[in-house]
Design a protein that fits this description.
The structure holds 2 protein chains of 2 kinds.
Chain A: H1 11-16, E1 20-24, E2 27-32, H2 36-45, E3 48-51, E4 56-61, H3 65-72, E5 85-91, E6 97-107, E7 110-115, H4 120-131, E8 137-140, E9 145-151, H5 155-159, E10 175-180, E11 183-188, E12 197-203, H6 207-218, E13 224-225, H7 228-237, H8 272-281, E14 285-292, E15 303-306, E16 309-320, E17 325-333, E18 342-347, E19 350-357
Parallel strand pairs in A: 3-13
Antiparallel strand pairs in A: 1-2, 3-9, 4-7, 4-8, 5-6, 6-7, 9-12, 10-11, 11-12, 14-17, 14-19, 15-16, 15-18, 16-17, 18-19
Chain B: E1 7-8, E2 13-18, E3 21-26, H1 28-34, E4 37-41, E5 48-49, E6 54-60, E7 64-68, E8 73-78, H2 81-84, H3 88-91, E9 100-103, H4 108-111, H5 116-123
Antiparallel strand pairs in B: 1-2, 2-3, 3-9, 4-6, 5-8, 6-7, 8-9
The chains are: A alpha+beta, B alpha+beta.
Chain lengths: 366, 124
């Protein structure tokens, strides 16, 4: 590794809080503060605060911004109105993922893309390359934005006293510009945990002020700082895909069971032909959720077996701290993808029984 | 927290010998590194192992790691309480969170392991 590891503007704060720090996607990040189980349960029952400033942000502006984003992503950007957000895929010509992302519509010709930290250089190059010859300006603004994710059923109660923005009227996948503890932010009702919550995008240098303000405001409600380990188990319970685990440039949007972010009727875009063809021919495999009965955890990369043959691969697997069972995601051949289907996972040379289950594993009560 | 009544390996396991019986566990440092332990795959009773052989597996939420036999011997007993409460290893790694007991031929192998001071120096 010749590249130096990067730090968010909260690195010192995490270290002082006693967080266990690990390298993640080229960043020195808090994986946990006290216990992944406690942090996970705090988010499900109260609230947790995550530093996710490592995420990349790309500004796309200009007269052709909408047409350009329609061309490089799978979802229908024309359905977005200012103040709304869309989950989408940056697709290859094969219909696989360059990345998954959030598209924020700031104004008619002004969008913000939020992308995975580990993919940022690749994505920025990809986007800039496809923007050539178009009246659109692409800028990597990752270094300007910190991002804090306040997640959990108490999130709104905790945030409300810190801002004049009317949070109760904000819809899921909507955002507003506002002040939080005196810091100008994009307040976004989004998250990667399966809970209600907000992602706050503020100036990089104001992260510490924002962090402390939110943590103190949430102390009476039991808010705790939470690390990337809990973020991973939370997103898995909610069956939210993780790039590099469940989706990548070898898995198509359809195979990943993300047909809802695929709008073939919107017109041509990168990968559309391949996806139309795959849809017509039928899928051979699909990402499905499963549970294992034994105590051993089926982890990323383990093989799925059926009738004496290796038939697929586990992409994510963990003990699910809230559901208190072992869950996972796997690409399985289509006939085996139906809930109730039994298969085995090869765990350290032993075949452990597993069963396909409906997803998401966890859905928050409304 | 490194008790001086036992020996340690560079793999962060401890061995406490009483007569012919060596009790084995992982250190407080090791449980801290692993994080919340959700499963301890126990070694098979009656199995004979040499020092360095895989004895079992410890799974935390984030990772899976192998438990190596710090000394050779025959597995007498695995800690049955861990089946229902694997988190005991996090809570009390040097006590109730012991993992298994081996019948050993001599103390020679365990005496050659790190003492508490040497282990403290290893983990800084």
């Amino acid at each position: 590794m010749s590249e130096t590891i990067r730090t968010t503007s909260l690195n010192r704060v995490h270290r002082e809080a006693g967080a266990r720090m690990v390298p993640f996607a080229g960043w020195d990040m808090p994986v946990q503060y006290t216990s992944v189980l406690d942090e996970h349960l705090a988010v499900r029952t109260r609230a947790g605060l995550f530093d996710v400033s490592h995420m990349g942000e790309v500004a796309v502006r200009g007269r052709d911004a909408l047409a350009f984003l329609q061309h490089i992503t799978s979802n229908d950007v024309s359905r977005l109105t200012p103040g709304r957000i869309q989950y989408s895929a940056l697709t290859t010509p094969q219909g696989t993922f360059v990345d998954d992302l959030l598209v924020y519509k700031l104004a008619e010709d002004d969008f913000l893309l939020v992308i995975n930290a580990g993919n940022t250089p690749k994505d920025v190059a990809w986007i800039a390359d496809h923007a050539r010859g178009r009246d659109v300006d692409v800028a990597d603004v990752s270094g300007r934005w910190c991002q804090l994710a306040l997640q959990g059923p108490m999130a709104e109660t905790i945030l409300a006293p810190l801002t004049a923005t009317a949070l109760s009227g904000m819809k899921y996948y909507g955002f507003e510009r506002g002040q939080v503890a005196g810091v100008t932010c994009l307040i976004s009702r989004t998250g990667y945990t399966g809970e209600d919550g907000f992602e706050l995008y503020g100036p990089w240098e104001d992260a510490e002020r924002l962090w402390h303000a939110v943590l103190s405001a949430g102390a009476p409600q039991g808010l705790v700082p939470a690390g990337l380990a809990a973020r991973d188990t939370l997103r898995l319970e909610a069956k939210m895909a993780l790039y590099g685990n469940d989706i990548d440039d070898t898995t198509t949007v359809l195979e990943a069971d993300l047909g809802w972010i695929l709008k073939l009727e919107k017109g041509d875009f990168v990968g559309r032909d391949a996806l139309v063809r795959q849809k017509a021919e039928g899928l051979t495999r699909r990402l499905v959720g499963f549970e294992t009965e034994g105590r051993a955890v089926a982890r990323h990369g383990y093989e799925a077996h059926h009738a004496g043959q290796a038939v697929g691969v586990i992409t994510s697997g963990s003990f699910a701290p809230f559901l208190k069972k072992n869950i996972g995601l796997a690409y399985l051949p289509l006939p085996l993808g139906e809930p109730g289907t039994r298969f085995d996972v090869s765990i350290r040379g032993r075949l452990e029984p597993a069963v396909v289950v409906p997803t998401p594993f966890y859905k928050r009560p409304r | 927290m490194v008790p001086s009544d036992r020996r340690y390996t560079k793999d962060h396991e401890w061995v406490q010998v009483e007569g012919e019986v060596a009790t084995i566990g992982i250190t407080d440092f090791a449980q801290g590194e692993l994080g919340d332990i959700v499963y301890v795959e126990p070694p098979e009773t009656g199995k004979t192992v040499a020092a360095g052989d895989v004895l079992g597996t410890i799974e935390s939420v984030k990772a899976v790691s192998e438990l190596y036999a710090p000394v050779g011997g025959t597995v007498l007993e695995a800690n049955a309480a861990l089946a229902q409460a694997p988190e005991t290893v996090n809570r009390d790694p040097h006590g109730a969170g012991w993992i298994c007991k081996l019948k050993i031929a001599s103390r020679a192998e365990s005496d050659a392991l790190l003492d508490a001071d040497a282990y403290k120096a290893l983990i800084g």
